[in-house]
Amino acid sequence: MEFKEKRLANGLDLIGEVNESAKSAAVGFFVRTGSRDETEQINGASHFLEHMLFKGTERLDAFEVNKAFDGTGAQFNAFTSEENTVYYAAVLPEYVIEVTKLWIELMRPALREEDFGIEKNVIKEEIAMYKDTPSFDVMDRCRTLHFGSHPCGNSVLGSEKSIDGLTVEQMRDYFARRYVPANIMFACAGNLDWDQICSTLEEACLKWQGCVTGRKLEHFQGSKKKERIERSNLVCEHICLISPCVSFQDNARFAASLLSIIIGDSVGSRFFWELVDKAIAEAATMQYSPMDGTGVMYSYIRCSSKNVSKVFDIVGDIFHSLSAEGITQEELQKAKNKVLSALVIKNELPMGRLVDLGFNWIYLKEYRTIEDDIEAVKAVNIDEVNSLIKQFKPGDFTQFTIGPASNG
Amino acid sequence: MGEHLDKHTLKNGMIILGEPMEAVKSVAFNFMLPAGAAVLAEGFCGAGNVIADWIFRGAGNKNSRQLNDALDGLGIHRAESIGSSHITIGAVLESDNLAQALDLYADIIQKPRLEKDQFELAKQLAIEEVHALDDEPRHKVMLKLREQFYPHPLGRSTFGNLDELKNLTAEKTQEIVKNNFNLSQTIFSVAGKYDFNAVCRQMEEKFETRNSKFEIPTPPAFGPGESAYGHIDEDCAQVHIGIMTGTVTPASNDYYNMRMAVSVLSGGMSARLFTEVREKRGLCYAIGARYHGLKDAAGIMCYAGTTPDKAQETLDCVISEFNRLGEGIGEEEIERAKVGLKSVLILQSESSSSRAGSIGYDYYMLGRVRSLDEINDKIESTFVDSVLDFLRKNKFKDFTVVTIGPKELTTR
Asked: Hey, which residues does B17 pair with through a beta bridge?
């Protein structure tokens, strides 16, 4: 593994980790923009824009773009979160340059009005689809409730209303502000020729212009509000709990990730033994989500209506015992074993490596080897985890539930 | 592409398959146990789901807690799945812990404690899972589609039937484990970093030589697919549409021509369904078709989710794309399909869990493991004419359609 980096004169960062023994490579553009960078009027613009990039450029229409990607056999896609939009492709080594050139071209899209109109329908279908996926819907709504007026509460998809109201001019304006070189980063991993990739990017991207665009960073303790909505077609109660936690920039993120495994891994965690093993809840998991300047712990629990109050009693007990007694050495060791093996397995694929490589750079401007992360996980001690519990009080959460109408 | 296949048969008849991978530190393994949904007797739909949970609630000298702590201590990532023919018990972990993991799995498979109080919990969870499925229409529609498309019991729900689950007893479920965890018909596959001789020695030592006398029933031969339309009325935001039509099985000589046809239809973003349904008409966000193959029956299954006003147009558009396929395919479309299929093959070959799954699947379906070179050559030897010829000989006649949503559709 060899790390490479270069900053172009216009501020665009290029990074890569070359691994000649890999059979494939992965490349991606990471754009530091997402729903938290939107105003209410343009809510959903980041995600809609991600769709619009695939609609082509002045030279290529959407079908030509799709044909060009498929012609390389690439596994390609994109995703948008509250704070990042990532475009990626996993590909065989002989197609790396071709796919990179394609992404470079798409990063300067045409944003045609007629494409915008058709894609609006697709976005609204995506919103409808997630409405029919309560496990997703409840998390989205709980995040909005938790963050209140903090921009991290903005929905990634937007609402049908905000999407209807969005104009192509607003999107072009948003693009011009956010897709500037200093707000974009290119990363690659796996079996590839760094010099060739670098010169390809340098030649094509140097002409990209635009000023640095900021983002207000504020930690947020959360609203701690509790809400429930009903849907007549549902059978189960879907529960989401959110509590604040450390940001990606905080070294305690490794301890936070271990804590989430101890409380809510899908097997062997406290949620598992107290809720799932005893068949009180059918699913109960916790996930740590480190973000830019802030962070949260998400819990998702699914149970029958008759078990709801029992679930909340048990969850209360779990958090109470954590704050009173802390975690055990044995729990910490098991969590480390799980996190360490997951790290090894994920990073065996260039695509898995690309994601870690990219996010470490986006948030920390730092190259971290897999070994750096392994050491950091191993070094976490019980006091660090217990002090996170004391500081962030995971039992003091924002709560959103979606369930059937019959439950009073 | 230089990969190597290890193969050995234990004294008890269990097949051991292995694919060593030089670039990885992980190892993945799967036990394919002949206890899938279609091979169980009438009245026990869902027993597999209970079993996959129950066997982890204590085995050998360990109770549930001790067993799960031991698995967690090895950093094992577990994956259990219920299919039509098998229950697959899988794991992926760092290779240094393989021997200890296999010791634990030998107990889980041969000496599960199967205690009665634990049975009730496992059964309750399986029942709750069926209820949870009602809240995920996107997933549920595809299970209903399979149930309706395949001749019974091939398409039996792998989640289970509520009434049958409620009537399930610990005694009967114990009997299924005893009978169907038949080691002579179990396939064990391993991929990644491992020492094959050591694995075989350990498996021979840890797995009993005596065997269940129980004959696993062969599900009935494939009859014609049911072309009925089924609708479940539900007040959700979209109409979730599942469409399935019969095609050749994995052992067929036409298998690769069929795979190419499916790729032209839905292999990538330039494929026909995505282009016609989503890109040109904006009817759907989620649209796609894929091959679903059992040993004795197979189909091409398609999902489309769309709001009620667009649902009929979406269904009509998808069916017409199926029917249009045999009328002509471009050279370029075939080229893209070839590149796509070959690329997936190599990208997946870097993942130990993906390889362990593939070699086990091949062995069950074909009685042998295909090399990547063989698959590559077979893909290369398809052409526009061979794919069209296949489509002419195997016209899409009957479509099984299932919808869940606020609007019933018309099938023509």
From this structure: B7, B189
